[in-house]
Amino acid sequence: MFRFGFADPKGEPAEPAAPSDGPGEASAEHIGAEEVPDSESKPTGAQETAVISPELSLIKGVVSNAQAANILSDERVEENDLIAGVYEGGFKTWEGGLDLAQFVALQLDTQRAAGQQAQPAEAGEQEHQEQQQWAAQLGPGSRVMELGCGHGLPGLVALWAGAEVHFQDYNRSVLTTLTMQNVAANRSAWASRSAWASHRQAAAAPSSETGAAASAAAASSSGEQSDAAVARYFAGSWDALPGLLEELGLQHSYDLLLTAETIYSLEAMRSLYRAIKACLRPGSGVALVAAKSYYFGVGGGTAAFTKLVREDGRFSCEQVAVINDGASNKREILRLAPLPA
Ligand SMILES: C[S@@+](CC[C@H](N)C(=O)[O-])C[C@H]1O[C@@H](n2cnc3c(N)ncnc32)[C@H](O)[C@@H]1O
Are the C-beta atoms of residues 61 and 92 closer than 8 Å to each other? Predict the structure, then answer.
């Protein structure tokens, strides 16, 4: 049975304590939010590869509980996956993060294959196509937010597709020592693969087809992004995020919102939902939420979140994937889409 390793075995918030690296005060509800510049990126140690799709593997850092405790200067982190108001689990890779990255990559592949076939839509496919519309728009010119990113695997898939991606995590040091490192490592892998593809294409092309045109053709045929899409980083609580987005002129500007393993507590999911609403572009923005059906001992899960969204009445909330691999309790992906006003 799945249980979070909480600082308090009853799942109650830990004693209020100032986050060791957080931008603000004592609890998740009151900690501030701020943009963290790329220049604060700090190198980490080990890396490994996560297979996302046949087309895409991502490089990700590996941070042990002992290393996380050291980075956060809090020895409780060695024994606990989450300490409410101090550390919210960003150094670990959670199953939902991988599920969501794989789901987004699959939708992109399906969309690309459908585009290549260019066949007229069958009547029964209408709904499926509508569900995938966000994937068709995911690329240069679209803006994506990943809330509670940790490693940021789903956001990395969007970055790979060419979107501008903003990564948000409660803990500033998760962003500086993990997320930024993951973005940099993958970007340089994509750049060198693109350069290699260009080199091969240029070598094979007739002499008139050299230079930029051949490079662009090679990059697009290999499915790699040659130009670095924009990545930005925001630290702090979901409660404070809407104010920061407003200050930066980013409120209601996101086409796609991604979030995984973030609806584990009833209290946190209300803040998360407010942040989702502040992010999404009115009338078209879509959110994908990956989570366990139920988080034993903490009360959150997909049913409670679906109820919250439906009661609010602004978005539809539908299950678009179920992952039941027997390794943990059932996991799902929910899709929130705007309802007509
Ligand atoms: C369990 S971790 C999941 C990390 C990652 N999405 C994954 O699936 O691997 C929960 C994430 O939600 C974020 N989080 C939780 N509560 C938060 C809050 N009140 N405000 C802002 N972020 C929060 C943390 O930053 C943390 O990265």
Answer: no
| Cross-strand pairs, 299 | 265
CB of 150 shorter than 6 A to ligand 1:
yes
Give, using CA atoms, the residue closest to atom 2 of ligand 1.
Answer: 89
Q: So what's the pLDDT on residue 44?
A: 77
User: Consecutive sets of 10 residues in the chain, 341 residues long: mean pLDDT of each?
Assistant: 45 33 42 94 90 95 92 89 84 95 94 68 57 81 97 97 96 96 95 69 53 37 55 97 98 98 92 97 96 90 97 97 88 96 79
> Which pLDDT score, from 0 to 100, does residue 2 have?
46
Strands 286-292, 57-61: pairing kind: unpaired
Atom of ligand 1 lying closest to residue 94 CA: 9
Whole-angstrom distance, CA of residue 172 vs CA of residue 189: 25
Q: Does ligand 1 lie within 6 Å of residue 89's CB atom? A: yes
> What Rg do the C-alpha atoms of the chain give, in angstroms?
20
152: Cβ below 6 Å to ligand 1? Answer: no
C-alpha separations of 301 from 105, 136, 305, 312 in Å: 24, 29, 6, 17
Domains of the chain: 33-197+225-338 (3.40.50.150)
The whole-angstrom distance between residue 306's C-alpha and the CA centroid of its chain comes to 19
Whether 21 is in the pocket of ligand 1, judged by its Cβ within 6 Å, is no
Tokens of 208: 């008139």
Residue of minimum CA distance from atom 21 in ligand 1 = 237
Answer yes or no: is the C-beta of 149 below 6 A from any ligand 1 atom: yes
